[in-house]
Amino acid sequence: MLLPSELPSLPVVADLADPTLTSALHHLIDHKTKPLGALGRLEALALQLGQILGTEQPRLEVPQMVVFAGDHGLAAKGVSAYPSDVTWQMVENFLAGGAAVSVLARQHGLALTVVDCGVARDLTPRQAVAGQPQLLARKVAAGTQDASIGPAMTPAQCAQAVAHGMEVVRSLPGNVLLLGEMGIGNTSVASLLLARLCGVPLEACTGAGTGLDAAGIARKRQVLEQALQANAGAVEPLEALAALGGFEVATMVGAVLQAASERRVMVVDGFITSAAVLVASRLEPLVLQRCVFAHNSGEPGHALMLAQLRAQPLLDLGLRLGEGSGAALAWPLLVSACAILREMASFATAGVATKA
């Protein structure tokens, strides 16, 4: 159990409900030079962005793509098609500019930060130089323990990771946070949290992850069932996070809570980042007002998690890469939604006749 002395002081998240602003945004969107509702989901997105940023003229400023990385003791049980070394190797790939998220962040002008939350290798912190990504050292430990035999983290480690996430967001400029992650074995964590916190059957929310075959998926489900049994008493959100989660997921939970308190727009990537949002929303439901869900991934548990969060993703491309790649791909839609609000003419200003 997490003792009060071990909990970080969680930020206050205010309700964004503002009937006056919402009415003004609806009026603005409905009177643009188009048939009513003709821009479909883009109109709902524009409304949400205006509500989050508290204005009829929203601007997305200095967007931050943050990739949270950590290793998992559970990976030793063969729950992934790749070895744990891939975690630190991919971190280096992010920083060298060769990963998908690196390319997409560069394409769209997103500042890229990688956070070492618990990678099982010593990594050297580095500052962003000439547009290159930065690496922040917020390592709690060199990977979590094996959740199939006991808690993945101590309560103090979980609290430390949450506090790290809050601090990272406070240190970054802008009003947008795009969430990404890296950690061999972390689809297992997402499946475990979905099963424990939402009561979804484990077999329904466990997929191939990095590319397991049918036998590998069966082995993964067996290991995850052992993890649920070994941590049967961890049912509250933070207790479940400590028992089943990863350092990168716990750090993201803190980041989500802090970003919500600062009224930042959050672009949520795939299954693992959604798991962090799930935990954060069980601690503070109002965080969901600030979340734009980028896509529905090819990992079977993600659609189930989105349903639990009552979230409608922007894209459905069969992605299952993670890293924040889906969030980066969805990013131009947010830019367009804001531009429509700010720049598209109304029937009155354009002198265009309305429907008879």
UniProtKB/TrEMBL annotation:
SUPFAM superfamilies xrefs: Nicotinate mononucleotide:5,6-dimethylbenzimidazole phosphoribosyltransferase (CobT)
Family in the record: Belongs to the CobT family.
Name listed for the protein in its UniProt record: Nicotinate-nucleotide--dimethylbenzimidazole phosphoribosyltransferase
Annotated organism of origin: Giesbergeria anulus
Enzyme class: transferase
Stated role: Catalyzes the synthesis of alpha-ribazole-5'-phosphate from nicotinate mononucleotide (NAMN) and 5,6-dimethylbenzimidazole (DMB).
GO terms assigned for molecular function: nicotinate-nucleotide-dimethylbenzimidazole phosphoribosyltransferase activity
InterPro entries recorded: Nict_dMeBzImd_PRibTrfase, Nict_dMeBzImd_PRibTrfase_bact, Nict_dMeBzImd_PRibTrfase_N, Nict_dMeBzImd_PRibTrfase_sf
Pfam families membership: DBI_PRT (PF02277)
